[in-house]
Design brief:
There is one protein chain. With 331 residues, the protein is an alpha+beta fold. It folds into two domains: 192 residues, Lambda Exonuclease, Chain A (Alpha-Beta Complex), CATH 3.90.320; 42 residues, no CATH class. It is 36% helix and 17% strand. It contains ten helices and twelve strands. Strands 2-5-6-7-8 form a five-stranded mixed β-sheet, sandwiched between helices. A three-stranded antiparallel β-sheet has the order 1-3-4, covered by helices on one side.
């Protein structure tokens, strides 16, 4: 049993959803430490920073089917865990606060009675079953359990998951003090060096930036390094993609029009299928008003177009300004 009475916290009794949501904005919870550590596929550190500083409003995901059913099935998952693990669990109506850092909080699913442990309840689709095979647990959930142990001081946590609506699994998560130390360090750095100082963390894949101005902006000097790395990475990808297409074409050529082929080590199947293609341009031309009714404008990411500026040799530029440049397209 977690010693809740001796832990700092806030009672959830009588607290509205709006109050609970407001408190979350001013703290780091168990489902957010994975974002900070880079183990979340749905949110980036920069997006989380914007939410914590009030620059962006967190999406209300409570109405999403996966979230809704996860909430609805939480008690069933907890009861099934208690049955299969032969343990007793209890609900604790409290938000726990880290004894040293008041911006670190934990809202746990269940207390496991009779031992210094808690329980995290999850649901997952059939497509996610591979993440739970054997001793496997999704990394973000491991961090979440360790986060709760960091705040409550518990020695162990359990995680139980209903997979695909018809497969149940539960696993212990022993306390890892080294990992907890890394999480606390990352959380403190994120909160004190970014949130409190209003200094955004560096963007990562998945961040979106809307263009709001057309005037040219002078970038800082270190942008040159990022741009060159970007060009190199793009060139390597283009080269790899082109090589892949070339090899694929040569293998198809060897098949000589046949669907299947075999070597001593491989079998090859040239897959082709027919599909219907909607002729959008033709439809718009023949039904302009109807097409306009069903057009929804949205902002799409078009990537970067980069040109490298190469300074001209002053000796070769007789009668011209030294600052004149040639433009070589690189991306």
């Amino acid at each position: 049993m977690i010693n809740a009475e001796k832990l700092p916290g806030i009672s959830l009794v009588g607290m509205s959803k709006a109050e609970w949501t407001a408190r979350r904005v001013h703290s780091i919870g168990g489902s957010e430490i994975g974002v900070i550590m880079g183990f979340n596929n749905y949110k980036t550190p920069l997006q989380l920073y914007r939410e914590k500083t009030g620059e962006a409003v967190p999406d209300d995901i409570s109405s999403k089917e996966t979230v809704y059913w996860g909430t609805m099935l939480e008690d069933i998952v907890a009861q099934e865990f208690a049955k299969r693990a032969n343990k007793k669990v209890a609900v604790l109506q409290q938000i726990f606060i880290h004894p040293q850092y008041d911006f670190m909080t934990a809202n746990i699913d269940r207390d496991v009675l009779g031992e210094d442990a808690g329980l995290e309840c999850k649901t997952a689709s059939e497509y996610k079953k591979g993440e739970w095979q054997g001793e496997e647990i999704p990394a973000s959930y491991i961090l979440q359990c360790q986060w709760y142990m960091a705040i409550t001081g518990a020695r162990q946590w359990y995680i139980a998951c209903l997979i695909g609506g018809n497969k149940f699994d539960w696993k212990p998560v022993p306390r890892d003090d080294e990992l907890i130390g890394m999480m606390e360090h990352s959380a403190v750095s994120f909160w004190k060096n970014h949130v409190l100082k209003r200094i955004p963390p560096k963007a990562t894949a998945g961040d979106f930036f809307e263009v709001t101005g057309q005037d040219e902006y002078i970038l800082p000097d270190d942008a040159d390094t990022l741009i060159r790395e970007f060009i190199t990475a793009k060139d390597m990808k283009d080269e790899a993609d082109n090589r892949k297409r070339t090899l694929e074409a040569q293998i198809k050529q060897l098949l000589d029009g046949r669907q299947k082929g075999r070597t001593g080590k491989f079998t090859v199947n040239h897959v082709q299928f027919e599909s219907s293609v909607f002729e959008e341009a033709k439809f718009k031309a023949e039904n302009p008003q109807l097409a306009e009714q069903y057009c929804k404008k949205q902002l799409k990411e078009g990537g970067l177009r980069i040109k490298e500026l190469i300074a001209k040799d002053p000796k070769a530029a007789k009668g011209k300004k030294d600052s004149q440049t040639l433009v070589r397209k690189t991306a």
